[in-house]
């Protein structure tokens, strides 16, 4: 990996460190490090510091030599790459050392030129390529010509116990509400996403402006939780949009939230309004794990994260809306907010059952260990399932069930 800072790829890597360690194996993480170094150590992993974020060809060549030496010196059986720049060095080192090479295609990478297509293609060059959704699998096969038998769909994992309603104390929820300046009786519509235009905060504001101005809607606040990460101009535009609609105090930009389970528990409904394709949709899965109905944009892998509601009596877990469409989001949000609390609670309970069946961290860990076993002839997954007393439901899909895993 390039670095060990917050992010989905980093979280998944550390979760796999924990899984391999539980089987009695060892995990070395080659990276230039970061804020998750202590988390890595607690999971049982060992940091091997290397400047793997570099795109400088000379330094990448040095990284190849360093990784090849590490593989031989430490008896590494398998190399798993999770990001493009380090994957080029890891691919060469693994081939030179004669060990299996696995990649995880984590995102819908920008691909606007042949050069960028070639750069991205390293993530499709693994002996097995793990895609974190069916959308991602289809994308990488279309872009790079990867064969179906080479690809596995393994969804991102959610720590469902961390998001369980009884794991979040009322005090944590009350503390967040107080920090946000939201009264205990006010219903909250929540979006958790870093502040960037492609996450669609402006769409949520435009939709909320249509809904909140209705006199019979009751006491509702919209909370946009996320760090600007230096995008101060976009943050300024959002604040101006809120003020222009006369919604200061009712739509709140609250910055980064570290207690996401408590934030979800505080909400009535969680919105994911991404303009661009999400490769998975963690926010949707986490909200459902917290027993909250979701409204998500029908783009990328987001539709894979829920059972869509088609009518009021349906057995779904949330609603799909047209992307980049404030009117569609407003109509859906209004209908959802008018549902009785007991109906929303039933939808939320179905959401948690859905996520528990398909998107748990243990399911992701077990399915990835199955991939390692296929390449190594080992029994890591079986050992892991024995250790965790878990038999995950549908953790991994072959892209084509008519095609054998390997030939």
Mean pLDDT across the residues is: 91
Proportion of residues in β-strands: 5-15%
Structural class: alpha/beta
Rg, rounded, reads 22 Å
Major beta sheet, strand line-up? 9-8-7-10-11-12
Instruction: Outline the low-pLDDT stretches.
Output: 390-407
Spell the H/E element sequence: HEHEHEHEHEHEHEHEHEHEHEEHHHHE
Helix content: 40-55%
- How can the largest sheet be summarized? 6 strands, parallel
Count of alpha and pi helical runs = 15
So what's the overall shape?
A: globular
How many E-type strands? 13
Measured between the Cα atoms of the first and last residue, the distance is: 29 Å
Describe this structure in words.
- Helix 1 (8-22) packs across helix 14 and helix 11 packs across helix 13 (341-358).
- With 407 residues, this protein is an alpha/beta fold.
- Strand 4 (101-105), helix 5 (114-120) and strand 5 (128-131) form a beta-alpha-beta unit.
- The protein is globular.
- The model is unreliable at 390-407 (pLDDT under 50).
- Helices cover 44% and strands 14% of the residues.
- The protein has a six-stranded parallel β-sheet with strand order 9-8-7-10-11-12, with helices on both faces. A five-stranded mixed β-sheet has the order 3-4-5-6-13, sandwiched between helices.
- It has helices at residues 8-22, 37-43, 57-74, 84-97, 114-120, 134-144, 170-180, 201-212, 232-244, 260-266, 282-289, 326-337, 341-358, 361-376, 380-388; strands spanning 28-31, 46-49, 79-81, 101-105, 128-131, 151-154, 187-192, 220-225, 251-255, 269-272, 294-297, 318-321, 396-398.
Offer a few descriptive terms.
13 strands; 407 residues; alpha/beta; six-stranded parallel β-sheet
